[in-house]
Amino acid sequence: MRNFRGVTFLVVLLLLGLLVSQILWVPRRMIELTYSDLLVQVGAGNVESVVVQGTRIEGRLRAGEVREFVVQGPPEGSPLYAELAQEVTARGGSVRFQSPGAAAWILPILGYTLPVLLLAALWMYMMRRVQGGSAFTFGQSRAKLVTKEFTKVSFKDVAGIDEVLDEVKEIVDYLKDPGRFVRLGAKIPKGILLVGPPGTGKTLLARAIAGEAGVPFFSISGSDFVEMFVGVGAARVRDMFQKAKASAPCIVFIDEIDAVGRKRGAGLGGGHDEREQTLNQLLSEMDGFEGDTGVIVLAATNRPDVLDLALLRPGRFDRKIAVPAPDLRGREAILKIHLRDKKLSPEVDVALLARRTPGFVGADLENLCNEAALLAARRNKDRIEPEDFEEALDRVLTGLARKGMYIKDEERTRIAYHETGHALLNKLLPRLGPVHKVTIVPRGTGVLGYSQRLLEDKYWTSKDDLLDLVTWAFGGRAAEELVFGEQSTGAANDLREATEIATKMVVEYGMSEALGPINLGAERTNIFLGEEIVRSEAHSEELAAAVDREIRRILSQAYAKAKELLARNRSALDRIAQELLRRESLDGDEIDALLSDIVLQPAG
Predict the structure, then answer these.
(1) Closest CA to 210 of 157, 165, 152, 249
(2) Which of 87, 371, 419, 481 is catalytic?
(3) Within its chain, how far is the Cα of 434 from the centroid?
């Protein structure tokens, strides 16, 4: 079947070449027609005379394009061609007579066949380059056989996901000692699906399994199955599983399986869609009539919501393992792995660095360590110091520092009071955690300064916590209005953040006294159109108006509280802002030292 498709494609290509050759041969036919325009037939096909005037030949002679005409045909003594030579010579041209020879029929043949041969050769060359072999290997799998020597990654290189590591170690233990499981009647899962946000270590975990399992490990991406030619994806799935069964017991790892495993019936083409045919073949291979084949399928995705339900059922993917973002201890363990081959200063506090990176995944932490090493090398240091990590973290979060950026003194003062407002509210609202740093050094695009808190990993947030967070977001806007008596555009991002939190409090968390414990956040989302396109219309206009009033109430009260707190502590606000203008950056300890003789006044 694969060869038949290839031959069919080649025949279509040859027909296309014939069409191109006809197009390329048009100039020759046009020349013949030009000569026929010179002949005026009288009676039953008898040529009586040659008329040059008013023809395309005359136009070419006047334009100087053609000065000589080659005539193939009857002898030169023919009256017709004698008259032709006389007419053309009179107009400044010349006629050369040539007897027809081998070129008369060789050249037309070359004109038809040469373009076809060139196109066929080009197609063969491109297919060999793309497929890495024969032009008829579309249906062969692109899965790579990964060996222990190739990956050089083991379970020692994986940290921060200990529970996940214990789950996948069971596969390795089964492959090394199947008798321990078989004698109890246990069966190893046929498929294991790793689910988690990008960068949490799903692919790294698969590489570690490849280095530890000691059995053949085939690795392929979901996008490698899908091709522009119909039927190629299903053929590649068959070929991959045939190779895997021949090497059983083995592991097949499919990275980004959502590229081929999306829900059926939602795309164009219905059941004849190439991707759906590929998925159907994958479903058949994973749990068909053959039963246990000794092939364990390991897959990874960060979009489990788009996968087809038939793919997720037990018997195909028996076990679904969530690979979450690491917590505080997990981040510290990951940092130690990425720093073990780097020269560090004894002053580097890995625990503090882990605390300063909430929400970071393994890929982010690896990038942070590499940025710090690059900065230290750029500064010709022998070791990586804490300030290198500080600068690297600022780069990752907000972009490159733009110390050469010119800012007017008036704007700079506004920025200092704006960021001081956030930092001071951070100290007045202890639920938010301590202040780590406040700076007015511009970074990236549009970041003129920022105030950074030391965040903790929280899995449960109270209503008071959210209200304090909304109040803190208004700190910059409140400070500007308190000191300068007017508002500016610098609080745009703060307003967006505050509005989002207040909206979730009312719509999703049921934290509105007026509306009561109700969740109005259910939306008809479409995984193919996106969350922002399909909206729910199940609520009345009165309920929507009540939601808007509650959101405005929360925002107004929080803003009033922010202004009150800053007004009661105006002396502290001025002192921090003036010192920030002088030094551009202050950390938490320096802010505490500035306020050592000032008693902060909480809200009344």
Answers:
(1) 152
(2) 419
(3) 36
Q: What is the DSSP string of 417-451?
A: HHHHHHHHHHHH-GGG--EEEEE---BTTTB--EE
Are β-strands 250-255 and 295-301 bridged in parallel, bridged antiparallel, or unpaired? parallel
Q: Cβ atoms within 10 A of the Cβ of 362, count?
A: 25
pLDDT of residue 468: 94
Tokens read off for 432 = 């938010």
Pairing relationship of beta strands 585-587 and 435-439 according to DSSP bridges: antiparallel
* Encoded tokens for 202: 């799903």
Q: What share of the chain is helix, strand, coil (3-state, %, to 5)?
A: 55, 10, 35
Q: Would you call 87 a catalytic residue per the annotation?
A: no
128 pLDDT more than 50: yes
Are residues 160 and 334 in contact, defined by beta-carbon separation less than 8 angstroms?
A: yes
Contact indicator for 252, 295 with CB cutoff of 8 Å: yes
pLDDT in tens, 213-245: 878 888 888 887 776 556 677 888 888 888 888
Query: What predicted TM-score, i.e. pTM, was given to this entire model?
Result: 0.69
Helices 463-473 + 409-428 axis angle, to 10: 160
pLDDT tens digits for range 428-475: 998 888 888 899 988 877 788 888 888 877 788 899 999 999 999 999
CA distances from 343 to 381, 382, 389, 418 (A): 10, 8, 13, 39
